[in-house]
Design brief:
Elements: E1 2-9, E2 12-20, H1 29-64, E3 68-73, E4 78-81, H2 83-89, H3 93-96, H4 111-122, E5 127-134, E6 140-152, E7 155-165, H5 171-181, E8 189-190, H6 191-208, E9 211-219, H7 222-229, H8 231-247, E10 254-257, E11 263-270, H9 275-287, E12 291-293, E13 296-298, E14 302-309, H10 316-333, E15 337-340, H11 343-364, E16 368-376, E17 382-393, E18 396-398, H12 404-409, H13 413-428, E19 437-440, H14 443-446, H15 451-461, E20 469-474, H16 478-494, E21 498-504, H17 511-514, E22 521-524, H18 526-530, H19 535-550, E23 554-557, H20 563-571, E24 576-577, H21 588-597
Parallel strand pairs: 8-10, 14-15, 17-19, 19-20, 20-21, 21-22, 22-23, 23-24
Antiparallel strand pairs: 1-2, 3-4, 3-7, 5-6, 6-7, 9-11, 9-14, 10-11, 12-13, 16-17, 17-18
Helix pairs in contact: 7-8
Bound molecules: ligand C2E and calcium ion (2 copies).
One calcium ion binds at residues 386, 440, 472, 502.
Length: 598
């Protein structure tokens, strides 16, 4: 006969116990009952074996983690420690098991803290926080801990604490800080710290009255790159973009990785609004170069949206919002386009950019020439002339008001000025009765190294007496360079080259500094001359002339257009007169004629 008994583990039949006998009447009730006992035992042992295996696995997991695990009973006596706990604490397992958890007490926590700690745990809640523990060698360390009450039959029977040491150099905090402030893929600052940077810039720029710009840079169809080449390649390209951005900006500009595939940059302290277009156009050229992706090279197009501080917005969010709007405009225009938040600015900036490029060409073609405006004494005799720059563009003559500002911004002024000086020296040789000619110098020309040496040797080279060249500087250039300019004036005076102070009255007009400045002539600004029928203005001009004379300085009135102005100025003893009433600026042929007929 034969008997089969199933073996069940976790509600599944996993096998059978089969017993056979040569006796036909062996399997009676008693024997069955005995077999049942054996069946139970087998099932129990199998389950136990399985549990033990899991216990071993769990244990090794506990011991291979970075965290310590300490289990205490409900009275906080230690019943288990993992390897990490012994490693961190310096105690052996034997030293810890059975001890009260206060072996770790650092006695650095306040009473309130301790009370709160125990109340939390006894009420069955999880305690999470930073704890200080004393380890075996007596030192105290900080840990992030989670202490979890373990329940059996609705009663707390154990406490499991799991924790991690906060390294002294705060690696964890640093990592946390990195996570909070940086973009993981590129290492650039993220939007959160970008906004902080914007805030700081705005605060300073408001105070210093400087301008700045926010650009949002968006690679077009970047998703497709991720899809085609995989995430890793996508990340590598983002890193390459990040590098190009940082490499091509000034160190104090900020580059950031914003949400998804967008980059943000903050350009600080721009000289002029249209400068942003120069910077960003260059950036766009850099970005458009191919990228390395494994063994391939990929071309990517970009769009850039721009907003300007303070004109477009004065808050971080405002600047970002507006740059985003500008970005969608750029996208509408097509690939590799730049969009401004303000459309007029876009037109202006493009125009100015074009102008600057034209000016560069104009300089190469020597299109800057000198016009001359004679000035006269009280008998209307020509006593000298002022050289005034003109741009001879095709057949038109462009006045300085339309370009000189941009020559100065691009520093082209220095070379343009040299053209004028050389031309003046050439033209002086054409005059039968030579008259002194004054040349306007901007602050950049003034700051040229060896200015006076170069000028003097140039004058000598042309074989012209030094006293025929005069220089004009505007009051404003003194502002930051007073000592330097004062020295230069003295130096050149020794070589008979004299200075006029131009646009007098429009700058910081302190008559007191005139005493320490060795200038020959003070040029009364056109705005005073225009306003001479105003008694107040008249008395100001009167005292300027009086004071200048008392310092041994002569005066020239600029922009004299009417007989009334001429008479009034004469009655005040003004020395020289310049204006449309006598002569307009003219080319050199006309100057020659004017001098001959004078
Ligand atoms: P500025 O040195 O004050 O020159 C006098 C300006 O007044 C000239 O303008 C002249 O044409 C104008 N003007 C003369 N008489 C009259 C008048 O009766 N009525 C009116 N309404 N205007 C009169 P322009 O030639 O347009 O030059 C403008 C400015 O450009 C100059 O002002 C000077 O600051 C600058 N500039 C001209 N040439 C040079 C140069 O070679 N180098 C530098 N750095 N600046 C220059
Ligand atoms: Ca002048
Ligand atoms: Ca002037």
């Amino acid at each position: 006969s034969c008997c089969a008994i199933s073996i069940v583990s976790k509600n599944e039949i996993i096998g059978a116990l089969v017993i056979t006998s040569s006796k036909s009447n062996l399997f009676n009730r008693e024997i069955y009952a005995l077999f049942r006992v054996i069946q139970n035992q087998i099932e129990f042992i199998l389950d136990k074996l399985e549990d033990d295996r899991f216990f071993q696995i769990t244990l090794s997991a506990l011991n291979s983690g970075f965290e310590f695990v300490i289990i205490t009973d409900s009275n906080f006596n230690i019943v288990y420690v993992n390897d990490k706990a012994t490693e961190i604490s310096g105690y052996s397992r034997q030293e810890l098991l059975g001890k009260h958890h206060s072996v770790f007490s650092s006695r650095t926590h306040s009473k309130e803290f301790v009370r709160n700690f125990y109340n939390t745990l006894r009420s069955g809640e999880v305690y999470s926080g930073i704890m200080q523990y004393k380890i075996k060698n007596g030192s105290i360390k900080d840990f992030y801990v989670n202490i979890i009450p373990f329940f059996e039959d609705k009663k707390i029977t154990y406490y499991i604490s799991v924790g991690k040491e906060i390294a002294k150099d705060d690696e964890l905090l640093q990592e946390l800080e990195k996570l909070l402030n940086y973009d993981a893929a590129t290492g650039l600052i993220n939007i959160y710290s970008f906004k902080k940077a914007l805030e700081q810039f705005i605060e300073r720029a408001t105070y210093e009255k400087t301008i700045g710009a926010v650009a949002i840079i968006n690679p077009i169809d970047f998703k497709k790159i991720n899809e085609a080449f995989g995430f890793e390649t996508g990340n590598s390209i983002l890193q390459q973009i990040a590098k190009r951005l940082t490499d091509n900006l000034r160190a104090y500009d900020r580059v950031s990785k914003l949400e998804s595939d967008r980059f943000g940059i903050l350009l600080k302290d721009l000289k002029a609004e249209e400068d942003i277009l120069i910077v960003v156009s260059k950036l766009l050229l850099e970005l458009a170069k191919p990228y390395k992706a494994k063994d391939k090279s990929i071309s990517i197009s970009f769009n850039i949206g721009l907003s300007l501080f303070p004109k477009d917005a004065t808050t971080p969010d405002g600047l970002l919002d507006k740059a985003h709007i500008a970005l969608s405009d750029a996208k509408e225009k097509g690939e590799n386009q730049i969009g401004f938040f303000r459309k007029e600015l876009e037109k202006d900036a493009t125009r100015v950019l074009q102008l600057k490029a034209d000016l560069e060409l104009a300089l190469l073609n020597k299109e800057f020439i000198a016009y001359y405006q004679p000035y006269v004494d009280r008998n209307q005799k020509i006593v000298g002339a002022e050289a005034l720059m003109r741009w001879k563009k095709d057949n038109t003559i462009v006045p300085p008001s339309e370009f000189i500002e941009y020559l100065e911004q691009t520093s082209l002024i220095v070379d343009a000025q040299k053209l004028i000086i050389n031309q003046v020296l050439e033209d002086l040789k054409l005059l039968k009765k030579p008259i002194p000619i004054s040349i306007n110098l901007s602050s950049q020309s003034l700051k040229q190294r060896h200015l006076s040496d170069n000028l003097i040797s140039n004058i000598n080279y042309h074989n012209i007496p030094n006293n025929l060249i005069k220089l004009e500087i505007i009051e404003r250039t003194l502002l930051n360079n007073f000592d330097y300019v004062a020295r230069l004036i003295k130096e050149l005076k020794e070589s008979n080259i004299l200075f006029s102070l131009d646009d007098f009255g429009t700058g910081f007009s302190s008559l007191s500094y005139l005493a320490s400045l060795d200038v020959e002539i003070l040029k009364i600004d056109i705005s005073f001359v225009r306003d001479l029928d105003n008694p107040k203005t008249k008395s100001i001009v009167d005292s300027i002339i009086y004071l200048a004379h008392s310092l041994g300085i002569k005066t020239t009135a600029e922009g004299v257009e009417t007989q009334y102005q001429f008479e009034t100025l004469k009655s005040m003893n003004c020395d020289y007169f310049q204006g449309y009433l006598f002569y307009k600026p003219m080319d050199k042929q006309k100057l020659i004629q004017a001098i001959e007929h004078n």
